[in-house]
Write a structure and sequence with these properties.
Oligomer: single chain
Number of helices: 17
Radius of gyration: 26 Å
Number of strands: 21
Distance between the termini: 51 Å
Structural class: alpha/beta
CATH class of the largest domain: Alpha Beta
CATH architecture of the largest domain: 2-Layer Sandwich
Strand order of the largest sheet: 13-18-17-14-15-16
CATH topology of the largest domain: Methyltransferase, Cobalt-precorrin-4 Transmethylase, Domain 2
Strand content: 15-25%
Number of domains: 4
CATH superfamily of the largest domain: Tetrapyrrole methylase, C-terminal domain
Helix content: 25-40%
Shape: flat
Length: 475
């Protein structure tokens, strides 16, 4: 039918284009590789087949085999399906996008190219290194590191501009540096090695061509190298790593249920933050019976816990109707049961209801499997159009907040309306000098103290809004 060869940018999901997002939301087949941010896949529709082709082993021969396999997939699905081929950065900048477009052209498969923000300039930008500046240069060159060890290189090393950006250069950076020195470059020329650009793991190391040529420095990909005097601006303009530094060492009071903080702890640790556990809710299993699933056109789950409780009692994987989830973790768990599951654009009841209304026939029978403490928002929005049956599959017991733990922390992450209700019972003075972050509007409605609200209703979204808050306060 058609193949879309789509650049998804350098790593930060917010650098994805609107067109790329729309195509993912309507894809029938998604083929993606290693450098694609996997959160993008959450936008894929329920019936989309997602194929990972990013595994790489040592040896260029294996890389060539992988590319042949990718070309075969493009030919196989492109003739009859809406295929979205996701590639890191821009597909036409050292991304083999041109080769894959040729495969389409040679086999009569319609195709489109969707440009992406290339790491060649986005990663230096995030490191505070402009690739052009009138006080330093009027041109620059983007090189692939693979050229440095070819006997007949396509690069005229002696006539390159002063500013160079080197992609895919880790393996042969020593040889690349030697080539540049042999071509007459000053050994003291500055080089920036930017690791994991535009992500929370970004780190910039400044060195020289001489040291690179000596081979004493080890690098782990992905790395973008910038060569030239313009690297000197990094010290003054290094905005992103300075922003990330504002959150390091912060102590976060997490109000999640007991035994549910593991993933949050790992995520906070990746930012250099410390977690203080203060469970404000307890998950309480309850006895319940499940109606015959064959009587329903759709199932709705509003939490991972709901999926766990139901799947312990019956084989959810046998359900053939539509399945809807409120967020990515719930969606991933359901997909692991081989169910065709989709979710709303935002991870809340309002967005989920809108998504169901747009994707389910009027009059359909819906079974909503949820907590007894859940709000009526979802049911109220669906009842006028569908026949909705609710089944409570677990209870939530509120626990008292510990003022001492709040005083130990710098910020409190409030992850549900029930948690907000427990915090509301404390004196306002407990929160003096603390930042409160709400996971979303429903939680905020029950939080009587000053707070900020995440626009992306996940722990990651809470970190993002808190990081922006700290950055604004520091500038």
């Amino acid at each position: 039918m058609v193949v879309y060869i789509v650049g998804v940018g350098p790593g930060d999901i917010e650098l994805l284009t609107l067109k790329a997002k729309r195509l993912v939301e309507n894809a029938e087949i998604i083929i993606y590789d290693k450098l694609v941010n996997k959160d993008i896949l959450n936008w894929a529709p329920a019936n989309c087949e997602i194929i990972y082709v990013g595994k790489r082993e040592k040896g260029s021969g294996h890389s060539q085999k992988i590319q042949k396999d990718i070309n075969s997939l493009i030919r196989k699905y492109g003739a009859s399906k809406r295929v979205v081929r996701l590639k890191g950065g821009d597909p036409f900048i050292f991304g083999r996008g041109g080769e894959e477009a040729q495969i389409c052209a040679q086999h009569g498969i319609p195709f489109e190219i969707v440009p992406g923000i290339s790491s060649a300039f986005a990663v230096p930008t995030y490191a505070g290194i402009p690739v052009s500046h009138r006080d330093f240069n009027s041109c620059f060159a983007v090189l692939t590191g693979h050229e440095s060890y070819k006997e007949e290189s396509a690069i005229d090393w002696e006539h390159l501009p002063e500013t160079l950006i080197i992609l895919m250069g880790v393996k042969k950076i020593k040889e690349t540096a030697k080539r540049l020195l042999d071509a007459g470059r000053d050994p003291s020329t500055s080089v920036a090695a930017i690791y994991n650009g535009t992500t929370i793991k970004q780190r910039t190391e400044i060195t020289t061509l001489k040291k690179l040529a000596e081979g004493g420095i080890r690098f782990s990909p992905p790395v973008v190298f910038v060569v030239g005097p313009i690297v000197s601006l990094q010290k003054e303009l290094n905005w992103f790593e300075k922003k990330l530094a504002t959150i390091k060492g912060k102590k976060v009071v997490i109000t999640r249920a007991k035994n549910h903080e593991g993933e949050s702890k790992q995520l906070l640790k990746s930012y250099g933050m410390e977690m203080i556990s203060m469970p404000l809710i307890e998950i309480v299993p309850r006895e319940f019976s499940i109606p015959n699933l064959e009587e329903f056109d759709a199932l709705v789950f509003t939490s991972v816990e709901g999926v766990k409780q139901v799947n312990e009692r019956l084989n959810l994987g046998s359900f053939t109707g539509s399945v809807f989830a409120i967020g990515p973790k719930t969606k991933d768990m359901l997909r692991g049961l081989n169910l065709n599951v989709s979710m709303g654009e935002k991870y809340n009841s309002e967005s989920l209801a809108e998504h169901i209304i747009n994707n389910l026939a009027k009059g359909s029978k819906i079974l909503a499997l949820r907590s007894s403490a859940a709000t009526n928002t979802l049911k109220n929005k669906l009842s006028d159009r569908f026949k909705v049956t609710e089944k409570y599959v677990y209870d939530i017991k509120r626990l008292p907040a510990d003022a001492r733990k709040i005083k130990e922390g710098d910020v409190v992450f409030v992850v549900s309306a029930s948690c907000a209700k427990s915090l509301a019972e404390l004196e306002p003075s407990v929160f003096k000098g603390k930042t409160l972050v709400s996971i979303g509007p429903e939680t905020s409605r029950h939080l009587p103290f000053p707070h900020i609200t995440a626009t992306n209703h996940t722990i990651q979204g809470m970190i993002d809004i808190y990081l922006d808050h700290l950055w604004m306060e520091s500038t």
